[in-house]
Design goal:
sugar transport; protein-N(PI)-phosphohistidine-sugar phosphotransferase activity; alpha/beta; 30% helix; two-stranded antiparallel ribbon; Fructose Permease; 24% strand; 157 residues
Length: 157
């Protein structure tokens, strides 16, 4: 099993809060972004790399590539795994990546979404996807920063 210190859903992927606060708190040395679009967008990758502290590597893989190779990660790689959406997490889970918990960070407002916490907005599809992820035995915890107490997302749906 790869050394995944935490897995986070954040629609901004890597930004200051993830690159600095989460990575440093966890003592991660690798931030792995699993997202089909960003895996091929070098401009977005470069922008995200700018907020990552020196000494922490980044990798940007598609969902399928992440599922296929993450089990080959070296134990010395202390990984913070980041996905953009619960749909990406469900795909990873269905492709065989079984984690005990996903931290839900930022899911911003857009049309058709309702607020379930200060930083999380969901639509009906998100709710169904979160329920499917939960049915795999995965805990879903809303947490902005590592020091937050956290709320169980499934109880808010």
């Amino acid at each position: 099993m790869p050394n995944i210190l935490a897995a986070r859903i954040d629609n901004r992927l890597i930004h200051g809060q993830v690159g600095m606060t989460w990575a440093n708190s966890l003592q991660a040395n690798l931030i792995l972004v699993a997202n089909d679009e960003v895996s091929t967008n070098t401009v977005q990758q470069s922008l995200m790399d700018m907020v990552v502290p020196e000494g922490i590597q980044t990798r940007y893989f598609s969902i399928e590539k992440t599922a296929a190779i993450i089990h080959k990660a070296s134990p010395s790689q202390k990984i913070l795994l980041v996905c953009q959406t619960p749909q990406d997490v469900l795909r990873l889970t269905e492709l065989g990546l079984k984690l005990d918990e996903w931290i839900v960070g930022n899911m911003h407002f857009s049309e058709g979404k309702t607020q379930i916490s200060p930083t999380v907005f969901v639509d009906e599809d998100d709710k169904e996807v979160f329920k499917k992820i939960s049915n795999y035995g995965v805990k879903l915890t809303i947490k902005g920063v590592p020091t937050d107490k956290g709320q169980e997302l499934i109880n808010l749906l």
